[in-house]
Structures are given as structure tokens and as C-alpha cells.
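Second attempt. The first submission of Oxidoreductase had a stray character pasted in from the spreadsheet, which I only caught after the job came back as garbage. Lesson logged: always re-copy from the clean sequence file. Corrected sequence (505 aa) follows.
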Amino acid sequence: MSEQAYDYVIVGGGTAGAVLAARLSEDPDCRVCVIEGGPSDVGDRRVLELRNWINLLGSELDYDYPTVEQPRGNSFIRHSRARVLGGCSSHNTLISFAPLPGDLDAWAAAGCTGWDAATILPYFDRLQNNIVPVAAKDRNPIARDFVTAATAALGVPEISDFNAKPFTDGAGFFSVAYDPETGYRSSSSVAYLHPILDRPNLELMLETWVGQIIIGAGPRARGVRVRRPDGTTGEVYAEREVLVCAGAVDSPRLLLLSGVGGADDLRRLGIDVVADLPGVGENLIDHPESVIIWETDGPIPKNSVMDSDAGLFVRRDTSDPRPDLMFHFYQVPFSWNTERLGYPAIEHGVCMTPNIPHSRSRGRLWLRSADPAEKPALDFRYFTDPDGYDEQTIVDGLRIARQVAAQEPLKSWLVREVAPGLDVTSDEALSEYGRRAAHTVYHPLGTCKMGAADDPTAVVDPELRVRGVDGLRVVDGSIFPSITTVNPMVTVLMIGERAADLIRG
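This time the job returned cleanly.
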């Protein structure tokens, strides 16, 4: 059939899309279609085995978006976006933090009514994912010693469960969405879709690409145009709503291709303007991080969940209850960027990645052409905030990492600092290295930001409805008005749960 109709058409079977599909199809009279550009993850051990995550980067299951030149950062960053059922929750490390209350209350204060902590945090208890602290058998000895060294060197508490209550600082093993018995993911697809694949009112269209939203008179979203795996094209219609859950890159891309965005930019590409929304593709935010690497005195014990099982939060600004520096501790030498800068590769090593939880730099995404097959341009504008906050955070992070590395029991594991090396000591030198070696934790957000009616840059309202187009919502990480302190995946899952309630009234 070239044309099919459902109550709801969900574009993207990823982190939020899987949640929406499961919740909306609980009503047996509601016909739900999920259109996913990638294949199923059912039975695919490459995807299901969490520790294999790093081998998915740049694979055929990765859309692999490049970054435009970054004069103050690293222009070689490739932004991984998953092309598989479950989206980035089938692709990432599944580190799982409930959002901190201050982050959600900031959303509400910015005009996102109904997104305050008191309203949103209870959704954490509804999540179907198996979110647990790293199991004892998976706690690598060097990661244990990192936690002990961090608490001793910095005077921060050891945290046994980062989701037990809000925290200001601390070190510990992360909570992860996984099955400790098998090491398999508890992704959004595993938790929400695998148990209900036989629902007669739920259809999955896999390896099917959505190139445009069909917008009729009103204007109102009527459905989507698709290209199927066999190359044929067709239309899929939504009698109630089209729900765009394609993520912070492909959701704005799809809106722009469909005539929803800044009018002048659309006309330059020959795209008919449906709704003049200049905020589409703007407010591109991320958690940039740098890296500091040590060689170890030999091989590291092999037990681990995903080789980045522990971390550290530091609060420099005591006027804010939220931490403002984060570190992942990798039990592997994450040297992609340092080798490019001329630093040596090492066989055995570890690294810390100082990360900016409240990055102030803002980027943008735009279309290069009206061709749906052409990748959009991503300009994160890393380290361009006028006050130099992001740059200083990385410098402080590199210094703090060295404090931890000099503390026993971690110190005895380490032979030497490989990158940047102990001769790099000044703020200027640490900044130059830190920015050039910078990477991403793959947290692009904010490109279809939610906001109040008087916010000219907002794309969706607090019920996630796209302004100026009826029957169309965006439900994914692109709606973040500002970045969360912590890894955002759980917040995106909660957005899916919240959206289901909003849609069902």
C-alpha cells in the first residue's frame, strides 16, 4: 500500500519514541505506527551487549554527523546518532541519572509551565527500564580506587546511589540501565517495546526514512512521506497527531524540510514556508569534555559494565546546589583526539574526562540544501561563550584530575601522564590542549526548545505542540530549553512518559 492511516504516527523509535509508542498503544482502540530509520535490535548482540557500545560508533548503525569548523574547539568531532530501534539508548553507555530538581525548576522559571521538579520527578518511578547501581561483580578494582582517591583528595562524599536523592558533589559508581546478570541493555526498546511487539494496534516500520511532514490546510500535520527499505515511497497518515521523536539533529532537520523554521532561511533553499519559527535549529547545546590520560603499570582487570562505570562531581560555585564539574573515569585510554594531536598511543591506560555540566556556549543547526538526503550542518560553537566560563571549567577540571591521580590508592596504578603531560601547567597551555583535545559525550539537545508564549525562540509550547501547526508535537531531547547537569537520557525517557499523559489528556 502506498497510503496507510493510524491515530498517531511516531517518527523515530528511539529513547522517547519507544516510550510514547508503548504508552499510547495501551489503549487497544488507538492505532499507533512507529517509523524508525534503522533496523530492529531484537536478538542483535552487537546492540544488546552494553560493553560493545564503543564499536557501534561510526558503524552502519550510526548516522555519524560531522561538525563544522570549530575555531576554539575540535573540528574533528563526529556526533554519533543511532540508526536502530531504541535510538541512542541502544547506542550509548546507559549511564542513568534522574534530573536534578534545580534543572527542572529552571525550566519552569523560564516559562515551561508544568515542567517543575515537583511535577516531573515522579515520572522517574514510572520508568520501565532496569536502572541500578553498577553491580559488585562489575566494579573494577581501578575504578574502586579512583572513587577512594577522589573522595580523599577532594573531600567529597562517596555516593552509593546517585538517584537516591539530589546531590551537590560526590564520587561513586554510576547507576546504569542494564541487566547485571547478562550485561545486556535495558534500553527504551528493550524495556518498552520488546514486551509488546505482538500488540495488534502497534505497527513498526523499520529501516523506513521520513523525508517530510505532510502539512495541509490550517496548517495541520496530516502525516509523513516515507522511503521504505525497498526504495518505494509513500504516505503514512495520522488522524490525530504526528509525533516527531527523531532527536536533536533529525527533529529540527525534519521540521525545516517541511517548511517549519526561519522563513528567510527556508526561502533561500526554495522550501515553502508553513510556519515562521526562527528557533528551529537554534539553541544547540551539549556537554563538551576534554581528556587527561595516564599509562598504567600493566593490564587492568577486565570486569566492567561499559568501561566508564564510575565518576566524580565537583561543585566550585557554592551559591548553586548543583555540581558544575563532572568527570567520567574511563578504564581504557580514550585517545582518539590526543593521538591526532601527536601524543603517543598506549596499550594500557586510563583517563578522566572533565565535563562541563552547565555549558554556556550555544550553537545552531541548519540545512545545507532542500535535499532530505544531505546531512545538516552542526555548529556547536564550542568554547565561544563570551565570559570564558566553558574554557575555565576545562582548565579547572584538568587540574582537579591531577589532584585525584596523585592520591593513593589510584596513584600506585599509574606510570606517567601521557596527555597533556606534566610539563603543561599554565592556564593558557591547559586551555589550548583542553580545547583541541575536547570531545562530546554525545548529548546534543535544545534545537526545538520548549518555552512560553512570549518567547520568540521557542519552537514548542509546554505541551510540546509545535507553534503554528496543529496536530504536530516534538517529543525528545530537542525540546530542552536548557541543558541538565547530568547525562540526559533519563530525562528524555521521562519526557516520553510526560508527553503520553499530555496527549491522552
